[in-house]
Design brief:
Elements (H helix, E strand, L loop, with lengths): L2 H60 L6 E7 H4 L6 E11 L2 E13 L5 E5 L10 E3 L4 E4 L4 E3 L5 E3 L8 E7 L2 E6 L14
Antiparallel strand pairs: 1-10, 2-3, 3-4, 4-9, 5-6, 6-7, 7-8, 9-10
The protein binds FE2/S2 (inorganic) cluster.
Length: 194
């Protein structure tokens, strides 16, 4: 085999090597494109399936904290004889995210100027301390900063910005029901917060 023939054979081998490399590149790009397509499809299906799961998990967080509810505080017949405010405790269930908190809240059942039953939250509208009824002084007192209130919840003195927060009531089957709610502190007008 002469030198020319050897060169020709060498070039032919180079060309066929390049053709093979080209085939390999084309087939590898095809494989990576298919891989990308499959990956994107799997990610899309995963995202679709995870939506209900996320909604389920996040539901408690997206739901506002709630604590208000109607609570029974006693028979109207028994309460009809009250002459001064009577302290009552009610159990309140509060949902905060995933947690359910049950706590006891105090309120006062009173009579208004016309003799009708009424109820007040014992939470001071100043900074949230517990207001107590003082029989000897015939008024409500808040021990934290000496807030004072009349027997029907009006502000008498001290730093609270308003009187005691009156709660809604209703009578059902001879029972006094109170709509327990929480109110914003440090504001002049009563504002429900939960
Ligand atoms: S918290 Fe009641 S007077 Fe300040």
């Amino acid at each position: 085999m002469n030198h020319r023939e050897e060169m020709f054979i060498g070039k032919t081998a180079d060309i066929s090597q390049e053709v093979c490399d080209g085939d390999r590149i084309t087939s590898s790009s095809r494989r990576s494109f298919l891989g990308l397509l499959l990956g994107a499809g799997a990610a899309g299906v995963g995202a679709l399936l995870s939506v209900p799961l996320f909604r389920f998990l996040l539901h408690p967080l997206l739901t506002a904290t709630s604590s208000s509810s109607w609570k029974e505080v006693g028979s109207v017949e028994d309460l009809a004889s009250v002459t001064s405010p009577v302290k009552k405790l009610v159990k309140i269930e509060q949902r905060d995210g995933w947690r359910k908190i049950v706590s006891e809240k105090a309120l006062y059942v009173c009579k208004d100027a016309t003799g009708r039953l009424c109820a007040f939250s014992s939470v001071c509208p100043h900074l949230g301390c517990s207001i107590a009824w003082h029989d000897e002084k015939s008024n409500f007192l808040c021990p934290c900063h000496n807030g004072q209130f009349t027997p029907d919840g009006k502000l008498l003195g001290g730093p609270p910005p308003r009187g005691m927060d009156q709660l809604e009531i209703k009578i059902e089957d001879g029972l006094l029901m109170v709509h327990y709610q929480n109110f914003r502190q440090l504001v002049r007008h009563k504002e429900v917060i939960a």
